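Review box. Two proteins, two foldings.
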Amino acid sequence: VPHHLLRKSGKLTPEEQQAVLQSSEYAFRVLYGINFGLPVPEALHDMNEKFDGSGPRALKGDQINPHARLLAVVNAFCSMVSDRAYRQGMPIGQALEILSASPAFDPAIVLALREIPAEDLRSALAGEDSPSRA
């Protein structure tokens, strides 16, 4: 992803959004063939697919790598609750409500995320050890 897009203070244009979405394709090409012991390249490749089939390759539900479905939820959650140059991060509860209402994300994964105590989520976002795991 071009560095200037990562630091842009305003909303991305449709063309810029496409460039950002291509990052998973680039990562897949770079990492393909490296044995991580996990499906890392495949998960990155499918990360921008939507559970409802509205993603770039129109994969739907279980057609999407389960690791990619997990990455998609966590990536969206972190993006929503993190401050950006152009906006303040939203509260954890609001982000969870948006994820829960969206057909784009695997509902089982969103439910699992909702079951994590908010205090643990805040600690993880701050880079601290979670109170229940310390």
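Next protein.
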Amino acid sequence: MFRYGNKIACVKWADGLFDPRLEYGVRPGGLSSPSLFYLYINGLIEELSKQHVGYYIEGICLNIVSYADEMVLLRA
């Protein structure tokens, strides 16, 4: 992946606040960013779907819902 170089972000998780340094990733708006994002996320979705852990609705396993860069993992 591409190097960010001295970029920081603030992440809020439960009751904690974290300030991780961003060292790797893709830049928003970069020419190759959509393709690289798709390659990574598509593989992740496929692997999670193979786990068959989640909610079953009429025999269909629902364990991940994603749209654009948003993702929700469901576990029964």
